[in-house]
Design goal:
The complex is a heterodimer of chains A (359) and B (219).
Chain A (H helix, E strand, L loop, with lengths): L2 E6 L1 H4 L6 H16 L4 E4 L2 E5 L1 H7 L2 H16 L4 E6 L1 H10 L8 H6 L9 H9 L5 H5 L3 H7 L2 H10 L14 H8 L18 H17 L5 E5 L5 H4 E5 L24 E13 L17 E5 L5 E13 L10 E8 L4 E7 L2 E7 L2
Helix pairs in contact in A: 2-4, 3-4
Chain B lengths: L12 H4 L12 E3 L4 H4 L4 E3 L3 E5 L6 H14 L4 E4 L6 H6 L7 E4 L6 H9 L4 E4 L7 H13 L3 E6 L11 E12 L3 E12 L7 E7 L7 E2 L1
Parallel strand pairs in B: 3-7, 3-8, 4-5, 4-6, 6-7
Antiparallel strand pairs in B: 1-2, 8-9, 9-10, 10-11
Helix pairs in contact in B: 5-6
Classes of the chains: A alpha+beta (359), B alpha/beta (219).
Chain lengths: 359, 219
Amino acid sequence: MERLLATWIEPLSLERSDGSTLRDTARLLDALSELCPFVEVVRLGLFVLPLRGPSRFFGGDDAVVRIVRHSVLDTVGAVAKIGVAEGLFCAELAAHAEVVVAPGATDVFRRAQPLDVLNHRELAATCRRLGLFTVGSFADLEPARVAERFSGRARTLHRVARGELFELEGQRDPTLGRRLSRLRGVDDLFEEPRSFFGQRGAGDDRADAAARRVRRRLGADGVVVARLCGGRGPEDRATLVPWGSPPGGAPGGAPWPGQLGAPSPMITLAHPVPLVLRDGENRPVVVGSRGSLSGAPATVIFSAPLRREVLWYAGPWPLVERWWSRHRRRAHVQLVLADGEALLVVAEAERWWLAGIYD
Amino acid sequence: MFAFSSPRPPLPEELAARIRPVSLAKSRTLPLGEPWNTLVPGGTIRRGSSVVVEAAPGWGGFSLALTLVSGASALGHWAAVVGVDDPGVVAMAELGVDLRRVLFVPRPRGAWAESAADLLDGVDLLILRPPARAAHGAARRLVDRVRDGGSVLVLLSEPRTPWPLPADLTLRVVRAQWSTSSRLDARYLTVRVDGRGAASNGGEHVVVVPNHQGRAAVR
């Protein structure tokens, strides 16, 4: 089976109603096509390319990973999760886990996964009762036993678990290709809903049904759920994904260096608002190379007429991302304004943005 | 895709007519989060109630609403947040809300009341930020729906644009003050409690959000 490099870009998995997600997806597809003409967007947020050719051309798997990472960062300004394994199913799992599975090791990798990755809660629950917790242990069941005990869908999943099929039903968004061509001026249909909750309880079905009702009313991105992932600033750690998205990586409880502690802002802006910060002599405040401020912030100006007095500030807390170039150097500053509102602002590329509000 | 439904077999008609949901007096209430479990009489809120949290912009209204629901959320009750544009989910987790059981409808656009009503049968706690001037009729219909159902509705409003109906419990932030060190530490909110029945004239309390354990507490 072909080795695939899968790239998971969380921000692109959440479709925004202004169409920017689809546009960014198209742009990134173009950029990645320059590396590898066979790159494919499987569904929003998930890009896949066959690795063999590019790996030879660029001099190894790691080189391709690095180049793709840079390309994603430069094109859409997002940090990608990248992984390599054989077949789409395992490649996506590798991306979420951010691992490169060595040639021939995909079998072991797949077999070690928890059963939840098959996205079938009843199957997982039944297997658990049988004492089967991994994809491998499920794969080892006799096909005949699976056939008599489980539904047709589970038989398909059994083949995925055994490595006979390489794709999970629902992994691919069949409408996306059409929507992208339509965006580029070419046609369309409505997306079929998905539903997934990791753990089921009595109330979960009711919530499921309620979410379905709202989505019918407001559209695919009308209902979102939270996913915590380990980024640097609160605006990076907090992701809202459309309800029904397939499960991503595990929630990040890992303490990142440079992470701002509690309290985090109650409002984190998905689209940061630009602002101007000036000191007492009306000079713009900038973050120096040593990570200090050029002056104490005295006023914050949102748009020309909206000017507010800063009573107190703290920071800056620099956020130097490992592989990011200098212009991605960022710093956080907390501000308290005259009317008691507190803001989290971020300096990036010598400009200031409103990142959060402590409501 | 990932959707699969296992429809329950319908109950025989003669049986359906004779049963009703188990509803003991106690289960008709939801526990309030800290510190409201000690400040509001009984420490619980009856299902079907509406609660108004009124605060000036940036004065901790959303935090305060979350402190109300965090106790029930931690026990596994489902919650929904409607009309809050960019909810800070990290902060919600810090306040003790279980994000695995929260549905967000950030931008219901014109359909805020309809979206909220859609969710009522599915969640136990519904935090709603209605549009600045909520139509009286739509508000009335929603509150009636809440009263008949099993959820608690928490409304976020501002003093300039108050919720047009009386509530079972009202929390007003009358003063908000940050406590700071080399960073923002916590906020002291002076909250005036009012409501129907035992909660009427519930007095003023200073609560700190969050306290050192990431919850809210009485100062």
